[in-house]
Each structure stands twice: as structure tokens, then as C-alpha cells.
Amino acid sequence: MKCPYCSAEDTRVIDSRPVEDNNSIRRRRICDQCNRRFTTYEKIESIPLVVIKKDNNREPYDRSKIEGGILRACHKRPVSVGQIKKVVDEIEAVIYDREEKEISSQEIGELVMNRIHDLDPVAYVRFASVYREFKDVETFMEELQKVLKADRKAARSSKES
Questions:
Q1: How wide is the angle at C-alpha 14 spanned by C-alphas 11 and 20, nearest 5°?
Q2: Do the strands 50-52 and 102-104 form a parallel or antiparallel pair, or are they unpaired?
Q3: pLDDT tens sequence across 78-136
Q4: DSSP codes joined into one string, 67-107
Q5: Which position among 3, 26, 111, 161 has the lowest Cβ density within 10 Å, counted as fewest Cβ atoms?
Q6: Where are the domains of the chain?
């Protein structure tokens, strides 16, 4: 690391510790030439992610949009902010594990649908009604039937255990 004071290239790390968020490391360094100390930060380089919208426009990935959608779906439901944060973290982990620079909004929507289904059935239906843009009551009822069927199946398997 080059010294910011004398531009010498011989510097040493004298202390390293994680920063509060645990996503970066703070390093205290000393220059072997001028003996001055300085601080550097090291953090993981993340791949900038671009979301491809339905109209083929591209925009930077924004975690808050996923959080906002889930929060709206869970409004007045017995779901904690911690549970929502955990779901968003899981979705984000799946997105970044793909190691691709682009993802479609449809793929993100399906990830949210899959995770929110296990979180709260009412929130799932709320999210689905907006995400899937139900055009009529019949389509909405079909989705409700799927949720009811899955809930019955889960209830039976828990009784058998």
C-alpha cells in the first residue's frame, strides 16, 4: 500500500480489526520511510447488479424495493421486522450466489413469492395479487385454492409427525 504522505511503497500493517458492520476490515498502517501512520479499509468487492424490468429497461438492484414490497404485503400481519429482514437476506443471498450481473424482475418476484409463502399465507396472497396482476376474481380464487391446498397438506403432515 502506498503511503499517502510520502508516496513510499513500503508500508506495514500494525493493527487489523473488523468494522462494526462486520463487512469490512480497518487496518492501521505505518510507513517504513516516513514513520507516519494512516488507516485503510478493506471490503468485499460486490458485483454491481442490474435488474431487467418487464419493459426491458434496466435499473440498479435496490434491496429496499424487495423490503418495501414484503412490508406492504405483511401490513397488519403477525410478522416481525426481524422475520422480514431474514427473508430479504435469504433472497439477496440467492440473487448474489448466481454470480451474474443481471437478473429479471420476474425472477426476483418468484423468489419473493416462494419465501413469503412460508412466512404468512395472507401476505403471500396480497403480494401475489399485485405481482401476478390478477385480472379477474377467477384467477385470484385459483391462487387462493393453491394456498389452501398447501396449508391443508402442511397441517396433515404435521399431525402425522
A1: 115
A2: parallel
A3: 999 989 999 998 998 899 888 789 999 999 999 998 899 888 888 988 888 887 777 77
A4: HHHHHHHTTTSS--HHHHHHHHHHHHHHHHHT--SEEEHHH
A5: 161
A6: 11-43, 50-156
